[in-house]
Design goal:
The complex is a heterodimer. Chain A is an alpha/beta fold. Helix content of chain A is 34%, strand content 26%. Chain A is built from six helices and ten strands; from the N terminus they run βββαβββαααβαβαββ. Chain A has helices at 43-51, 92-103, 106-119, 135-149, 165-182, 193-199; strands at 3-14, 17-28, 32-36, 58-63, 66-67, 77-80, 153-157, 185-189, 202-205, 215-218. The longest helix of chain A is centred in the C-terminal third of the chain and has 18 residues, at 165-182. Chain A starts with a strand and ends in a 5-residue tail after the last strand. By secondary structure, chain B is mainly α. Chain B has twelve helices and no strands. In chain B, helix 2 (66-95) packs antiparallel against helix 3 (103-118), helix 2 (66-95) runs parallel beside helix 5 (136-160) and helix 2 runs antiparallel to helix 7 (177-211). Chain B is globular. Classes of the chains: A alpha/beta, B mainly alpha. Chain A binds chain B through residues 48, 51-53, 71-90, 94, 98-99, 101-103, 142, 145, 149, 151, 155, and chain B through 163, 165-175, 179, 183-184, 187-188, 190-191.
C-alpha cells in the first residue's frame, strides 16, 4: 500500500517554540489513524502542519504525492477543524457544495454533494442556514462537506464531539465506508480513547514520548 | 398568520407615532424660528422656483423648490458614489486582508486604499471639478474615490477579524484565492459588508452636502450661492433641511443595519426605539 502521508524528522510548533518532534512516520491508503493525548500537546498543530496550514519548524512532510510547502493536488485533503469552519450565513447545501466543487469536476459536484447530505441525514435541512442548526447538526454538515469533496486524506479534529451515540455511529460508519471503498486515509484527533480505539486501525497516544515509538520528544505547552 | 399581522400592526403603530412626534417637533421648531431675531424668510427655499414653471399639483409644489432639487441631487450622488465605491472597494478590501493574501499584495493594495482616504472628499471634488468640469459627475467621482478609501479600510479590518476556521478548511481543500473570496469570505462577511455599505451611504449624504460648495453638484451649490448673496436666512433654512434629512437617513439606516448584524433576532430595534430611545427605555423598565 503506498503511503498517503510520510513524515521525517518533523518538528511542529509556533514561532520557533517546538511542541512535537517526530522521527519517522507514515500512514497508508485505507488506514485510519487516531491521535490522542492531553490538551495543548500539539495534536491540532500536527494536523494543521499536515494540511499545509502551518509551516513546520524543521523536517519534511510528503502528503498525497507533494512535499510541503508545495501543495498537493486540489481537493486531496479534507480538513474538519475543531471549530468546523462552516460559513455560518450560508445554507447546508452551499457549505457542502464548497467541498464538492473543490474535489470534483463541475458535472458531478452536485450529485456528490447531495449524496453526502443524504448520508449525514441532513436532507430536510438542505436549505437551512448553518447558524440555525444545532452543534451536532453542524458537525454533520462539516463531515458531509469533507465526504462530498472525496479527498485522499481526511484530517478530522474532534469531529465526533456533540454527537449523540446513534448519530455518532452513523457518521463514523459513513466516513469509514468512504475511507475503505476509496482507498483514502484518515487521521483523527480524538479525546475519547475508547472511541478512538474502536474507530482506528492504529492509535497513537502523545504523552511525553510514552507509548509511542515514533514520537521522540514532546513537551506540553503551559496553558 | 395572525401573529405576523399583529407584529406588523404594532410596528406600523410605532412607526406612525414616531413619525408624528418627529413632525410635531419639526413644526414647533419652525414656529420658534419664524419671526425670531430677524424677519425670517428663509423658508422661501422650499417654495417653487419662479422659472421654470412648476407643473406639479399644488400639494407637490415643494418638489420644484431649490431645497428639494438640491437635496435629491445630493442623495442621488450619494447613492451612485456608494454603489460604485462598493464595487471598487470590495476587491481592494479583499486584496488588503493579511489573512487572505501575502504581504507583497496587501501592502500595495493598502497604499492605494490609504491614498484614496488621505484627501477629504471636498479636495477630491475640487480635483474632479478641474478634471471633468462643474456638476454632479465630479461629485460622484470624488465621493466614489473617498468611499473606496474609507469603505476599503473598514472591509479589510472586518475581514481580518473573521473566524479563521472557514479559511483554514477552504485553504486545506486547495481552493483558489478567488474561490475563497467568493464562496467563503463574502458570504461569511455579507452582514458586515452590507451594514458598512449602509453606513457609508449615510456618510456620503452628509459629505455630499458639502461638495456642492466647490461646484460638484447637490444642495451645497445653493448654499454657496446664497452665501455669496449674503442671504444667510436661506442658508440657515438649507442647513436645517440638511439636518432633518441626515437625521432621517441616520435613523432609517440604524433600523436597516440592524437586519444585517449577526444576531439580528436579538438586537433588532423597534421603530420607537430608533426615533425615541429614551422613551423605549422607560417603557421597558416599566
Amino acid at each position: 500500500m503506498p503511503a498517503v502521508v510520510r513524515i521525517s524528522n518533523l518538528e511542529v510548533g509556533f514561532q520557533g517554540h517546538s511542541l512535537l518532534s517526530i522521527d519517522d512516520f507514515h500512514i497508508n491508503q485505507g488506514e485510519v489513524l487516531a491521535i490522542t493525548g492531553p490538551s495543548g500537546i500539539g495534536k491540532t498543530s500536527l494536523l494543521k502542519t499536515i494540511a499545509g496550514l502551518l509551516n513546520p519548524i524543521s523536517g519534511t512532510v510528503h502528503v498525497c504525492g507533494a512535499t510541503l510547502p508545495q501543495r498537493p493536488e486540489r481537493g486531496s485533503i479534507g480538513y474538519i477543524p475543531q471549530k468546523l469552519g462552516l460559513v455560518r450565513h450560508s445554507s447546508v447545501w452551499s457549505n457542502v457544495m464548497l467541498g464538492s466543487r473543490a474535489g470534483n469536476p463541475r458535472s458531478t459536484s452536485r450529485e456528490h454533494a447531495m449524496n453526502a447530505i443524504e448520508a449525514m441525514g441532513l436532507g430536510e435541512k438542505k436549505n437551512e442556514p448553518i447558524k440555525r442548526l444545532s452543534g451536532g447538526q453542524q458537525r454533520r454538515v462539516a463531515t458531509a462537506r469533507t465526504l462530498a469533496q472525496r479527498p485522499r486524506l481526511i484530517l478530522a479534529d474532534e469531529f465526533l464531539s456533540e454527537l449523540d451515540e446513534e448519530t455518532s455511529e452513523r457518521v463514523v460508519k459513513s466516513v469509514l465506508d468512504y475511507v475503505s471503498s476509496n482507498e483514502a486515509a484518515m487521521i483523527l484527533v480524538e479525546h475519547d480513547v475508547s472511541r478512538a480505539r474502536e474507530i482506528s486501525d492504529r492509535l497513537l497516544v502523545i504523552d511525553d514520548g510514552r507509548l509511542n515509538p515514533f514520537i521522540r520528544d514532546t513537551s506540553v505547552m503551559e496553558v | 398568520m395572525a401573529k405576523i399581522l399583529v407584529k406588523i400592526d404594532s410596528e406600523l403603530r410605532e412607526l406612525i407615532v414616531s413619525v408624528a412626534v418627529l413632525l410635531l417637533t419639526f413644526r414647533i421648531l419652525l414656529e420658534l424660528t419664524s419671526g425670531m431675531v430677524w424677519d425670517w424668510n428663509g423658508w422661501s427655499v422650499i417654495e417653487p422656483q419662479s422659472y421654470p414653471p412648476c407643473e406639479a399639483n399644488r400639494f407637490l409644489q415643494f418638489t420644484c423648490s431649490t431645497a428639494w432639487i438640491g437635496m435629491i441631487e445630493t442623495i442621488k450622488i450619494a447613492i451612485l458614489a456608494t454603489f460604485f465605491g462598493m464595487i471598487l472597494s470590495l476587491p481592494m478590501g479583499l486584496l488588503s486582508s493579511r489573512n487572505l493574501f501575502p504581504q507583497y499584495i496587501t501592502y500595495p493594495s493598502r497604499a492605494v486604499v490609504s491614498a484614496c482616504r488621505s484627501l477629504p472628499s471636498l479636495i477630491w471634488a475640487i480635483i474632479f471639478v478641474i478634471l471633468v468640469g462643474l456638476g454632479p459627475t465630479a461629485g460622484i467621482m470624488a465621493m466614489t474615490i473617498y468611499t473606496v478609501g474609507y469603505l476599503g479600510k473598514m472591509q479589510y479590518e472586518a475581514i481580518e477579524g473573521m473566524n479563521s476556521a472557514p479559511l483554514e478548511a477552504a485553504n486545506a481543500m486547495g481552493l483558489t484565492k478567488a474561490e475563497l473570496s467568493l464562496w467563503v469570505v463574502i458570504p461569511e462577511m455579507a452582514n458586515h459588508l452590507i451594514a458598512q455599505m449602509i453606513f457609508m451611504f449615510e456618510y456620503n449624504v452628509r459629505s455630499g452636502t458639502v461638495i456642492g460648495i466647490v461646484g460638484a453638484g447637490g444642495i451645497g451649490y445653493y448654499i454657496n450661492l446664497y452665501l455669496k448673496f449674503l442671504q444667510y436666512e436661506k442658508v440657515g433654512a438649507y442647513l436645517l433641511i440638511i439636518f432633518m434629512v441626515v437625521m432621517l437617513i441616520d435613523l432609517v439606516s440604524i433600523y436597516l443595519r440592524s437586519f444585517f448584524t449577526d444576531e439580528s433576532e436579538n438586537t433588532k430595534p423597534t421603530w420607537t426605539g430608533v426615533f425615541l430611545p429614551r422613551y423605549e427605555k422607560i417603557l421597558l423598565s416599566e
